[in-house]
């Protein structure tokens, strides 16, 4: 066996003549004596199990593999394994070294979200880890992703309307230089729906689908979904009922027997207020007022 050579193979995406390739690069040992490399490409076929795609013997400190949509598809997690050996002495070889797994496709960052019904916007980045190839001279060079949401509810409940809203129904991934694991990226904000219902924490699913992809690589490709857990927040209630008994947001109880129109509630943070109208419903027997009308803005 040759000594461990610390080849440190790593996979990076690259456009070669307008087609998407993955490049496996490794650090070559000193030139003496001459060394060849055996590069084995594989991908995850199931969790923990790899399937061999291609093998190559080369003198170069790199190897290319095309993402052709058949042998190598979007959604695959790809590895390259490199072994060095002396020319003419294939039995004298180094220990095989694996690259880290490279996920080729669309990613959401973060991959899951936990948010609350507090009206805050949460930024979700959607990115492509591979370059966006232009299918032809006249075609617009972008991938449009159609975004949708679905309420998965809780195991004991029937799914209802989505518990989240998005800032956009679709985003465009425009080509750019690949850096930091991203070759094209867009942002969308996710907000929990404040539904005034005490329905516990619910799970929604955010899905992205390439819309009318021009490039064969993107057809029939379904990116991974994002799971969004929405934490229920208790909602304040205030009441005015019958001959008005009033219960405030913080639980104080009192009666109001005045005749007229009154401000029942006003928000200090947004344009929202409720007026209540009370009339004399006790007649001569007692000074009692009852609710007879309400107006809300």
TrEMBL record:
InterPro entries: Dev_Signal_Modulators (IPR050969), Ig_VWDE (IPR057885), VWF_type-D (IPR001846). Residues 236-297 form the VWFD domain. GO terms for molecular function: signaling receptor binding. Pfam families: Ig_VWDE. It comes from Pheucticus melanocephalus (Black-headed grosbeak). One of its GO terms (cellular component) is extracellular region. Keywords: Disulfide bond, Signal. This is VWDE protein. Transmembrane segments: none annotated.
């Amino acid at each position: 066996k040759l000594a461990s050579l610390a080849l440190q193979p790593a996979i990076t995406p690259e456009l070669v003549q307008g087609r998407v390739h993955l490049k496996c690069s490794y650090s070559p040992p000193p030139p003496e004596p001459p060394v060849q490399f055996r590069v084995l490409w594989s991908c995850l076929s199931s969790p923990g199990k790899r399937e061999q795609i291609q093998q190559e013997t080369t003198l170069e400190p790199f190897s290319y593999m095309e993402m052709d949509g058949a042998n190598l598809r979007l959604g695959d997690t790809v590895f390259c394994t490199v072994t060095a050996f002396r020319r003419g002495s294939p039995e004298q070889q180094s220990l095989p070294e694996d690259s880290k797994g490279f996920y080729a496709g669309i990613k959401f960052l973060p991959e899951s979200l936990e948010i609350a019904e507090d009206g805050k916007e949460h930024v979700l980045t959607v990115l492509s880890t591979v370059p966006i190839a232009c299918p032809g001279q006249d075609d617009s060079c972008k991938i449009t992703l159609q975004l949708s949401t679905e309420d998965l509810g809780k195991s004991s409940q029937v799914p209802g309307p989505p518990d989240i809203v998005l800032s956009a129904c679709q985003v465009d991934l425009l080509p750019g230089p690949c850096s930091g694991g991203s070759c094209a990226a867009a942002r969308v904000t996710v907000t929990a729906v404040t539904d005034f219902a005490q329905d516990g924490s619910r799970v929604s699913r955010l899905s992205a689908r390439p819309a009318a992809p021009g490039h064969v690589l993107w057809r029939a490709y379904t990116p991974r979904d994002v799971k969004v857990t929405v934490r229920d927040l208790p909602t304040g209630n205030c009441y005015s009922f019958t001959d008005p008994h009033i219960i405030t947001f913080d639980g104080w109880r009192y009666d109001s027997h005045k005749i007229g129109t009154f401000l029942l509630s006003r928000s200090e943070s947004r344009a929202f207020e409720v007026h209540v109208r009370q009339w004399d419903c006790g007649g001569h027997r007692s000074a009692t007022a009852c609710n007879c009308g309400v107006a809300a803005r």
